[in-house]
Design brief:
Shape: globular
Order of helices and strands: HHHH
Largest sheet: none
Radius of gyration: 13 Å
Helix content: 40-55%
Number of helices: 4
Distance between the termini: 19 Å
């Protein structure tokens, strides 16, 4: 992660989706990369863990929660031998 990296948390993410904490940060990160035609987040679990200041396990749990709420569609695509 670079010192210049940033994410944007929008009010509707809190007011309409009811997100907070790690779910909010992770959703905002994914949402920011998902703008535009066919966009989606292609980052790794390690990168997401850095943003959350947490473990990879916590990222996986948070992703599962966001998916179960219908806020994201999760899939894994191996690239260079890395999920």
């Amino acid at each position: 992660m670079n010192a210049e990296n940033y994410i944007v948390m929008q009010g509707w993410m809190i007011a309409e989706l009811g997100l907070s904490g790690k779910e909010l940060v992770l959703y905002a990160l994914i949402y920011g990369y998902s703008q535009g035609d066919g966009g989606g987040f292609c980052g790794g679990i390690k990168y997401m863990a850095e943003w959350l200041g947490s473990t990879k396990r916590t990222v996986m749990t948070t992703l599962t929660t966001l998916e179960s709420k219908g806020f994201i569609t999760k899939f894994e695509e191996p690239r260079n031998g890395i999920k």
